Amino acid sequence: MKNNAGFTLIEMLVVLLIITVLLIVALPNITENNNTIRTKGCEAFTLTAEAQIESYFMKTGAFPLSLETLEDEGYLKQSTCPNGEIPNYDSSTGEITSSVLQP
Fold this sequence. Notes:
The chain is mainly alpha-helical and 103 residues long. The protein is built from two helices and two strands. It is rod-shaped.
């Protein structure tokens, strides 16, 4: 009597087929969640930058010249969104806008 303790080729193919189906189902969800996370990160950055612009204005009496000024002064750790987008900043009004927040 033979004792075959290993997997047959058919069993291995079935396992690979199941793994492939799971990846096909999961991959679009992972990509969509990644985009959502990047968008939420930019929204959070823009709101944080707004608060730091106000803080800078209260301390100095003037709006910062750029977001890089806030970064240099220690108000922000970076001057861009986590997704790499550079928000629009108007130093005359202190307003910051991002394409992520626009309807």
